[in-house]
Amino acid sequence: MILGIPVYEGVDVLDVMGPFELLNWAGFDVQIAAVKAGPIKCRGGAIIVAPLEFRDAPQYGALWVPGGDPNELSRMMYGPDQTYIDFITGQAGKAHYVCSVCEGALLLAQAGLLDGYTATTHWAFVPCLTERYPQVTVAQDNPRYCWDRNRLTGGGISSGLDESLALIERVFGTAKAQSVQQTTQYYPRPPVQSEIPLATSCPVPLKPPPIR
Fold first, then answer.
1. What does residue 78 show for φ and ψ, rounded to 5 degrees?
2. Of the listed 42, 99, 102, 146, which one is catalytic?
3. Segment 130-148, tens digit of pLDDT
4. CA-CA 20 to 30 A from 153: which of 137, 169, 171, 179?
5. 81: in domain
6. For residue 204, is it within any domain?
7. What is the CATH number of the domain that holds 25?
8. Domain range spanning residue 176?
9. Average pLDDT in the 150-163 region?
10. In a domain, 210, yes or no
11. Non-local CB neighbours of 47 within 8 Å, separated by 6+ positions
12. Residue 129 phi/psi, 5° resolution?
């Protein structure tokens, strides 16, 4: 199955490369695409390369939409250039699975792809869904990921790893997911413990800031 990750300037690198690693080990043909092929500067400055342009991308069996910088999200969601939204809308129509991690859920919501579904996102961006997309039901208690039919949404950044295993299990079975877990030695035991805060406002500007 071809799994496509459409990226953009300011994307969160772990939203892309963490799932890329696990999904690739499982046997997905993972493809990274962008409006223009070439280097993509992630949030924080790391560079990843998108070998494909949107116009050359095949139909994906699974679509994986990552989160990123709030200003970049605002430009894609509310700005005049709707290339990204149009691309994921077109891909989702025939994809077997439509997935997002972190604030990628906001991009799906803006495209209308979560209407009537239950979904999750990064805790800090939950108000974006509740305030701006009332047709989307927000999963309670900030789950690491949420399945609703063929929609799979993940919480904040690192949740993409758990979510990847959930997709692998759904597509290839539990034994394959366990094998990938073992290969990547994904048995998290964080050295600190804290509580997820309660967010009260959406960090994504409704008016896109100027492009620098």
1. -120, -5
2. 102
3. 999 999 999 999 999 999 9
4. 179
5. yes
6. no
7. 3.40.50.880
8. 2-184
9. 98
10. no
11. 39, 40, 41
12. -70, -45
Contact yes or no for 8/76 (Cβ under 8 A): yes
- The residues, ordered by sequence, that sit 6+ positions from 125 with a Cβ below 8 Å of its Cβ are 67, 102, 103, 105, 106, 199, 202, 203, 204
CA–CA dist 42, 112 (Å, integer): 25
* Mean predicted confidence (pLDDT) in 205-212: 86
Return d(Cα 186, Cα 127) in angstroms, integer: 30
Contact 138, 118 (CB under 8 A): yes
Going from the C-alpha of 13 to that of each of 46, 102, 183, 207, the distances in angstroms are 7, 12, 21, 25
* Residue 40: band (very low, low, confident or very high) from pLDDT cuts 50, 70, 90: very high
Domain count for the chain: 1
116 belongs to a structural domain: yes
Could you tell me how many residues make up the chain?
212
pLDDT tens per residue across span 91-131: 999 999 999 999 999 999 999 999 999 999 999 999 999 99
Residue 212 binned pLDDT confidence (cut-offs 50, 70, 90): low
Nearest residue to 4 via CA among 50, 39, 69, 73: 50
- In whole angstroms, what is the distance from residue 208 CA to residue 127 CA? 18
Tell me the pTM: 0.97
Query: Strand, coil or helix: what is 98?
Result: strand
Q: CA angle, corner 165, sides to 185 and 158, nearest 5?
A: 75
Q: Could you tell me the two tokens for 36?
A: 């223009």
